[in-house]
């Protein structure tokens, strides 16, 4: 089978890549396992040097890599550049902190000596999505490889160009050849790869359905597994919020990456005193979002990454409207080549509508009127997802209490939109998955936390 790289702003095929055959995949896994045996014995100083070299190459090649992202999945070019910058950041963050994170930890017991030693697990298989085709890979690979693991990337089928560009970067940075390898394969090959006895662990970022499938296989073969899945992040806007600031942050949080982000702002739950003003200003700013060629820097929105993703979002909007939602702007396909979908706002959202209960992976916002703050918290938690959340209010103490104790999510941002940061743990609960990425917690996911006890 061929993996097709399609330019989503025209629908034209850029290039076709043959999938790796089973013999090739088995050989790659064997090689990456062999590489692990020597990579884990290298010094931390050497590993840090190699990752710093990757960061240097990312900086030098930024323009070309950003182009590869935008041409393959349609991200506005400035956001693609910012994605490469974030990859550079995660390289430096872990290079600066890895020694401290991996330092053996003495624990006083009745023994002569007892301590915790942090050892790599082995070959980690990463099944990654197209929406942040560099960042999602780097945030898993940098800590895993610095810790002494080796890695195999099975990227999304629509971004083979990005997958190959990432493997090339590691090779150009003088990594031993099989420390990081890309396998060109569709999702049908993942189960057998996880089952391979040389693979120690797996991590998937993607839909809940894909996560369920990977978790099932990982469970069957007892492989360590991290899942970063979808979300339907609630943004709570209370009467005492700074309206202009809240609207700006909410629009930004909803439109980033043309709405195709797991931690995108999706449900805006607004208390009655501010609801009308919020709705008016929010719709005005969503209508003003410019859409078009992702290489034209003035555009905030590019095309959706694939035709079927646009069809899905259109169907969710239409079904919601047929069940009583009000379309305040957008919602109509744009008459031009490519998979464009405009910034869209729905109100009068009810539980039976997809806009209430499903993830909207596109530039579509659901506005929900709550009766009061308690009702807003109830609605926020009335979802199968639990990834991010945000609260807009001038009462910071109240927001912290609600964020910590009441919202069912992996994070809560107060007076800001949710975003990932190498210094902070990232991940979800409920059907948004389990495990954490980034920070020291992400590093420890692919580590054998080993107890040494000397009598
Ligand atoms: P998928 O979850 O299908 O794809 C993500 C990755 O998982 C890809 O590498 C894909 O491979 C792989 N995959 C898919 N199904 C399986 C499976 N059964 N077993 C193992 N691996 C699998 O996302 P889509 O691209 O189809 O997007 C669909 C929806 O997923 C979006 O609308 C959004 O809701 C959600 N999503 C969430 C993301 C996030 O950041 N949490 C990122 C992307 C999507 P292949 O490409 O070969 O199918």
Question: Keywords, please?
Answer:
alpha/beta; Aldehyde Dehydrogenase, Chain A, domain 1; Aldehyde Dehydrogenase, Chain A, domain 2; 7-stranded mixed beta sheet; 18 strands; 42% helix; binds NADPH dihydro-nicotinamide-adenine-dinucleotide phosphate
Report a brief summary of the structure.
The chain contains 15 helices and 18 strands. The strands form four sheets. Strands 12-13-14-11-10-15-16 form a seven-stranded mixed β-sheet, with helices on both faces.
Largest sheet properties: 7 strands, mixed
Strand content: 15-25%
In CATH, the architecture of the largest domain is 3-Layer(aba) Sandwich
| Total number of helices | 15
CATH-defined fold name of the largest domain? Aldehyde Dehydrogenase, Chain A, domain 1
Radius of gyration equals: 23 Å
Query: Which descriptor suits the 3D outline?
Result: globular
Domain Aldehyde dehydrogenase: 4-452
Pfam family, one: Aldedh
Organism: Plebeiibacterium marinum
InterPro entries: Ald_DH/histidinol_DH, Ald_DH_C, Ald_DH_CS_CYS, Ald_DH_N, Aldehyde_DH_dom, ALDH_GabD1-like, GABD/Sad-like
């Amino acid at each position: 089978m061929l993996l097709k790289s399609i330019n989503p702003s025209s629908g034209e095929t850029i290039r076709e890549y043959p999938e790796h055959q089973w013999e090739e995949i088995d050989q790659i896994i064997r090689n990456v396992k062999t590489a692990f045996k020597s990579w884990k014995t290298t010094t931390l100083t050497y590993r840090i040097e190699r990752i710093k070299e990757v960061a240097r190459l990312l900086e030098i090649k930024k323009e070309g890599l950003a182009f590869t992202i935008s041409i393959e999945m349609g991200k506005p070019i400035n956001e693609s550049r910012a994605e490469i910058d974030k990859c550079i950041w995660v390289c430096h963050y872990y290079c600066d902190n890895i020694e401290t994170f991996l330092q053996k930890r003495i624990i006083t017991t009745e023994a002569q000596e007892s301590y915790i030693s942090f050892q790599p697990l082995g070959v980690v298989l990463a099944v990654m999505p197209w929406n942040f085709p560099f960042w999602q890979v780097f945030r898993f690979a940098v800590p895993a490889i610095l810790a002494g693991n080796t890695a195999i990337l099975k990227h999304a089928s629509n971004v083979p160009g990005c997958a190959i560009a990432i493997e090339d970067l590691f090779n150009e940075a003088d990594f031993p050849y099989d420390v990081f390898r890309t396998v060109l394969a569709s999702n049908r090959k993942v189960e057998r790869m996880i089952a391979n006895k040389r693979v120690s662990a797996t991590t998937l970022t993607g839909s809940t359905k894909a996560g369920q499938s990977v978790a099932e296989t990982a469970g069957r073969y007892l492989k360590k597994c991290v899942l970063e899945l979808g979300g339907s992040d609630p943004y709570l806007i209370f009467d005492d919020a700074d309206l202009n600031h809240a609207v700006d942050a909410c629009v930004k949080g909803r439109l980033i990456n043309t709405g195709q982000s797991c931690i995108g702002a999706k449900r805006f739950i607004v208390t009655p005193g501010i609801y009308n003003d919020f709705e008016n200003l929010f719709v005005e700013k969503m209508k003003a979002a410019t859409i078009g060629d992702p290489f034209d820097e003035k555009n905030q929105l590019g095309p959706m990454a694939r035709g079927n993703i646009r069809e899905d979002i259109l169907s969710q909007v239409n079904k919601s409207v047929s069940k009583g939602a009000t379309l305040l702007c957008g919602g109509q396909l744009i008459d031009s080549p490519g998979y464009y979908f405009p910034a869209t706002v729905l109100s009068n959202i009810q539980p039976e509508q997809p806009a209430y209960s499903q993830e909207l992976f596109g530039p579509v916002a659901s506005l929900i009127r709550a009766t009061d703050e308690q009702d807003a918290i109830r609605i926020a938690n009335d979802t199968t997802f639990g990834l991010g959340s945000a609260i807009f209010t001038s009462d910071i103490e109240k927001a912290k209490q609600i964020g910590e104790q009441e919202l069912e999510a992996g994070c809560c941002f107060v007076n800001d939109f949710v975003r990932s940061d190498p210094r902070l743990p990232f991940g979800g609960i409920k059907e948004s998955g389990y495990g954490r990425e980034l920070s020291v917690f992400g590093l420890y996911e692919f580590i054998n936390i080993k107890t040494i006890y000397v009598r």
